[in-house]
Amino acid sequence: MAKKGSLSITSENIFPVIKKWLYSDHDIFYRELISNGCDAITKLKKLELMGEYEKPEEVEYKIQVSVNPNEKTITIKDNGLGMTEEEIDKYINQIAFSGVQDFMAKYKDKANEDQIIGHFGLGFYSAFMVADKVTIDSLSYQKDAKAIHWESEGGINFEMTEGEKTEVGTTIVLYLNEDSTEFSNEYRAREVIEKYCAFMPVSIFLENETAEPQYDTIEKDELTDKDKVIETVIEPAKTEEKENEDGTKETVEIEPSREKYKILRRPVALNDTNPLWNKHPNECTEDEYKDFYRKVFRDYKEPLFWIHLNMDYPFNLKGILYFPKINMEYESIEGTIKLYNNQVFIADNIKEVIPEFLMLLKGVIDCPDLPLNVSRSALQNDGFVKKISDYITKKVADKLSGMCKTDRENYEKYWDDIAPFIKFGYIKDEKFAEKMGDYILYKNLNGTYLTLQDCLDENKEKHENTIFYVTNEKEQSQYINLFKEEGIDAVIMPAAIDNPFISHVEQKKEGVKFLRIDTDLNASFKEEVKEDDEAFKKSSEELTELFKKALNNDKMDIRVEKMKNTGIASMITVSEETRRMQDMMKMYNMGGMDMSMFGGAGETLVLNANHPLVKFVLEHKDGANTEKICEQLYDLASLAHGALSPERMTKFVSRSNEIMMIMAGQKVE
Ligand SMILES: Nc1ncnc2c1ncn2[C@@H]1O[C@H](COP(=O)(O)OP(=O)(O)OP(=O)(O)O)[C@@H](O)[C@H]1O
């Protein structure tokens, strides 16, 4: 007698809601059904160990997925512990469905952004996302169990009858709805299974029922019990014609005739049942780590190094985080952290669990203790999840600081590549910043790597608590030369992240100030000018006026100095604050804003009173070429500081030509 019933779904509207809500990842049904199969096999293995079940020798635990694109069906077959009629009634008719009800009651009003991670908790019911009709055929491992057939159309009513299954396990068939036929395509199926099930603990095989069988030919001694021989192939002996000494020809055998077997292509499991993260770090070789990286992230550049996380207490967490090699000039940093729950893939880059800055790395994390069927916002406020995230941060900081202390050579070698991660972490994560602050390196003008304390110590006498930095070695070369001449050091900080990074260091290290190398003229570059040097004061004022007039800019900031280096006539310096503000604007794409609101863009034209040209200008205020010299000095200073605007560049080139004409004694029009 068939048992019929109505699954206790109270809301008739449940389907449209689930469908809409799950629209983005319908494919999770594969994960849910395959992981149920894995669980069933794991349980049966335990029963076997306990002596409560004896596995027939020929049986190999596995999950077989078969797709049939013609019939639009998917069959998922496991040889796990199976279910009796009572169990189907309990676990499928009541629990699976009531689980869905709870789940929906909790989430149906929630907006999309508050999804649960990877839609866990739908379980068996997710089959109805893609199928109109679902059947279950199950035979329990229990003695004298009867095979059961269950089917449901639409997931509201079911019918349960005696089944015909003869092997222990469960077979589920999905009859796909019109919108979901793609999942019976072999390649799509492979893609989804490889995404979610790549590390599930039981071998998963995929077959296409409609595809022609494929064959391989193997050597006789390669044959195993599992191979299905289609035919024996006799490969004829290989011969060669040979000329004898007496000129006659002879055919000789160089390889004897061989028997080979044509066999049905051996199925290959889609998954790796024992992922590397489960092994103890001491047992993993360097090659294994690299292979794993290549396979999982399909990145053929070798990672720099990795951190193997392995923790059992107070929570269970395993994983491997790789620091990838990045070419900063051409690539943006895009990492991926894959999150697993007992080898079942959940999702990439779950920011609630994994500290944001680590998302720049590539890695896998398996945390069986993670609460999954809660919303993302609940996860964010979960103390336990916070602990996991803190643990990961701590481990990464420990590894990096340990490396800096004990393997400084390699640490320096990797530094340029890992600096962006570390600086980003320093900005984003207070705890990480605390642990890593002393292990952040600064490359100085000689290419030596210093810690912040080293930088402060070496500069203590000349400029206590101030660190000069270079953002562009080419554009700032004039200043670099000046610094080198005076034996003053600076550090190279060329990356976009350096700008916010130094602001954070300044906030955390009270008193420390970073100044870009072109910010101001350090006292050591100048000769001392006496307070009461009236003559200097006067000539400064005159020069300032003269330049303002020549450059037709009343607001320009001009300063006259007596520089020790008499080779430099003019320079531009930029106020640190203004420049940082401008850089920030650029970063946030607000470049269009009027920079003059920052008082002439914070630029100061510095004139060296010791330079003959400047002296000449002062002595020939009304000279025929004085104005040109002033303009030229300003443009040269700007050029040495970066670039000229297109308009000024045009004028500069034509003026330079005029100057050469004058040098050549030609008449200038
Ligand atoms: N292939 C199977 N073999 C044996 N039992 C199964 C199988 N599939 C499902 N079950 C039983 O049905 C129950 C309900 O399954 P369902 O997938 O809905 O939820 P779950 O696996 O318990 O939890 P989750 O929501 O996390 O998936 C399972 O706990 C299991 O007891």
From TrEMBL:
<dbReference type="Pfam" id="PF00183">
    <property type="entry name" value="HSP90"/>
</dbReference>
<dbReference type="InterPro" id="IPR036890">
    <property type="entry name" value="HATPase_C_sf"/>
</dbReference>
<dbReference type="InterPro" id="IPR020568">
    <property type="entry name" value="Ribosomal_Su5_D2-typ_SF"/>
</dbReference>
<keyword id="KW-0143">Chaperone</keyword>
<dbReference type="Pfam" id="PF13589">
    <property type="entry name" value="HATPase_c_3"/>
</dbReference>
<comment type="similarity">
    <text>Belongs to the heat shock protein 90 family.</text>
</comment>
<dbReference type="InterPro" id="IPR020575">
    <property type="entry name" value="Hsp90_N"/>
</dbReference>
<dbReference type="InterPro" id="IPR037196">
    <property type="entry name" value="HSP90_C"/>
</dbReference>
<keyword id="KW-0547">Nucleotide-binding</keyword>
<dbReference type="InterPro" id="IPR001404">
    <property type="entry name" value="Hsp90_fam"/>
</dbReference>
<keyword id="KW-0067">ATP-binding</keyword>
<protein>
    <submittedName>
        <fullName>Molecular chaperone HtpG</fullName>
    </submittedName>
</protein>
